Amino acid sequence: MNRQNHFLFSIVLLSITILFYSTLTRASDDPEYGYNEKSAKGPRHWGDLKREWAACKGEMQSPIDLSSDRVSVMIPEFGDLKRNYKPQHATISNRGHDVAVTWEGDVGYIDINGTHYFLQQSHWHWPSEHTINGRRYDLELHMVHVSTQPDGTNKTAVVGVLYKYGSPDPFLSKLVNYIIEVPDEEEEKSIGVIDPSKIFKSAKMYYRYMGSLTAPPCTEGIIWTINNKIRTVSRGQVKLLKNSVLKYYAKRNARPVQILNQREIELYDPKAKNIPNY
């Protein structure tokens, strides 16, 4: 084999090797579930993909449409949503299906009927998963809180914040550089001290209902609190989140709205004095 043919053979061999390993990489990147509704791994099939995900076919699933004709107006006994957060070190990670900020140690809690649910992490869905009177917003933040029970089990409460396109969100603005450099799936990057109390103001009006996690395993018995005040986020910020996980999932990571069944939706409104439930 002359030098020129040897060179060409080496190029072909290298190309085959690159193609082989890129194929393996794509296979390893194939997610366990997805959000493409036409896919065999799409939302309507989650409950059939694994036995542990059977709850995805349950009757108390999230998200839901927060429709006015299904809401009971309540006068809250405890007023505004009680939060007791404090600054704490946090990390950011690409979980494949979303970008998550996780706090280290005790970062504080929310108080629901006298029970403290301690903040663990927050993540985003685009577009929003919950809708209000049929309207789907451009982004939704989930702040996941956990309370450990006397028997050792955990109860989860999630606070949801909805966003429409407009001015940049201050919380995401602080994370721009970190999101650009967000590591590959299952890796974390330190982002310093983050104060959760700066993410959103205390909610004076909020929806509450019992639901589930919005992704597998779709565990039910989750207390949902959705802030009634719609915040703003820039298109660039949503695009940044979307591009960071685009190689793993579809262009959206929002589960379709689920059937409400016989569940109640409560709207806590301090101004709703003397207004009976309806």
Automatic annotation (TrEMBL):
GO terms for cellular component: chloroplast stroma. Belongs to the alpha-class carbonic anhydrase family. It comes from Medicago truncatula. GO terms for molecular function: carbonate dehydratase activity; hydro-lyase activity; zinc ion binding. It is an enzyme of class 4 (lyase). Its cofactor is Zn(2+). Its main location: plastid. Keywords: Lyase, Metal-binding, Signal, Zinc. It is found in: Plastid, Chloroplast stroma. Residues 31-269 form the Alpha-carbonic anhydrase domain. CDD domains: alpha_CA_prokaryotic_like (cd03124). This is Carbonic anhydrase. Residues 1-27 form the signal peptide. Its EC number is 4.2.1.1. It catalyses: hydrogencarbonate + H(+) = CO2 + H2O. Reversible hydration of carbon dioxide. Gene3D superfamilies: Alpha carbonic anhydrase (3.10.200.10).
